[in-house]
Known about the structure:
By secondary structure, this protein is mainly β.
Amino acid sequence: MRKICTFMIGGIRFGIDVLKVMSILQNIEIVRVPLAGKAVKGIVQYRGHIITVIDLRKKFDLPDWEVGSNPLHAIIKTKKGAFSFLVDEVGDIQEIQQNTKVEIGKNVQEIDSFYVSHSYKLDDSILLILDAEKVVEVKSELSV
C-alpha cells in the first residue's frame, strides 16, 4: 500500500508519493526569470534556498489560471533538488492499493503519459501519479 498526497490541477486529480512532498505553501512572492521555459513561472525562496516554480498548467497545456486565482505551492523533493509545483488545491492523503492500478495510454485525461508513472481507479475518478523527476526534466521546446 502506498500513501499519496493528492491535488487538483484544472479539474484533474493528481498525486505524488507523500514522502516526496516537503510542504504546501500559499501566498509566496514569485520572482520572474527572464527567458525561462514556458512552464517555469519563476523562483521563490524556501527555507533559505532558491527553488524553481513549475506551473503545471503550462507544463500540461491546460487552460491558464483564472484572473485573481491564488495557486498553492507543493514543494516537492527530487533528485535535482526541491521544486515548487503550482496546483489548484490539495486533497487528502490517499492509501492506494495495487489492485486498483489501471493501464495508461499515450494520453491520460489530456495529459502526456510521459509525466505519469501510474494511474489508479478511485471511487469517483482516476488518480494520476506524477513522476516528479520527469516533470522537472528539461525537454526541448523545439523537438518534434
